[in-house]
Amino acid sequence: MINLILFGPPGSGKGTQAAKLVEKYGLLHISTGDLFRYEMGNDTPLGLEAKSYIEKGELVPDSVTVGMLRNKVEANPDVEGYIFDGFPRTIPQAEALDRLLAEKNDAVSKLIMLDVADNELVKRLLVRGKTSGRKDDSDESIIRNRIEVYKSETSPVFDYYAAKGQAVKVDGIGSIDEIFSRLCAEIDPLQS
Ligand code: C5P
Ligand code: MG
Q1: Which residues of the chain have pLDDT under 70?
Q2: What is the distance between the alpha carbons of residues 19 and 57, in angstroms, rounded to a whole number?
Q3: Phi and psi (nearest 5°) for 110?
Q4: Strand pairing category for 2-7 and 110-115
Q5: 3 C-beta closer than 6 A to ligand 1
Q6: Domain range spanning residue 14?
Q7: How confident is the prediction for the chain on average, in pLDDT?
Q8: Which residue puts its alpha carbon closest to atom 9 of ligand 1?
Q9: Angle at 130 between CA 112 and CA 83, to 5 degrees
Q10: Structural domain tally of the chain?
Q11: Which of 2, 1, 8 is nearest to 157 (CA)?
Q12: Residue 68 belongs to a domain with what CATH number?
């Protein structure tokens, strides 16, 4: 199995690249943000709870996010591996993911961070907000809050996996295909 964490700040291109990686490697793409938006779109209790955080650019509490992620993984046991996009976003989420995979006698293969500077992120998200219909993409102060939350709560997850020799950074600036090639150069060696 290849269990990949596609990591990076909001707007760094995780979703875009995940879609291409799924095609090439046949992994299951799990985006916790997409899962939340699906729940919000259906006005489920989970969606309503998540919405209050997401619309401020804050993180949904770990227990809620981890429970949702676990359900998705357990509903799809027979896959070649997973691409985790937007998860883990905190150290407790990373610990929970490690435990969940360990229960399956498995582990994270690699964390790949897409490295993009703040100003570029804000630009990309404002452009995306014109068509994504996402409230959290259309307000610059919410976008900046998401970037701050990434720095304070999420970036330690990089160090957590780096300490285990499992984290790498890839330049997230360039064309979609250029960035994809950089990712493939990190993933190909994981295939056995
Ligand atoms: O990953 P994405 O940018 O689509 O996530 C959108 C929002 O969903 C985040 O800004 C955050 O409010 C929420 N989220 C979260 N915890 C996660 C993933 C997403 O709170 N692990
Ligand atoms: Mg995304």
Answers
A1: none
A2: 24
A3: -165, 150
A4: parallel
A5: no
A6: 2-190
A7: 97
A8: 54
A9: 20
A10: 1
A11: 8
A12: 3.40.50.300
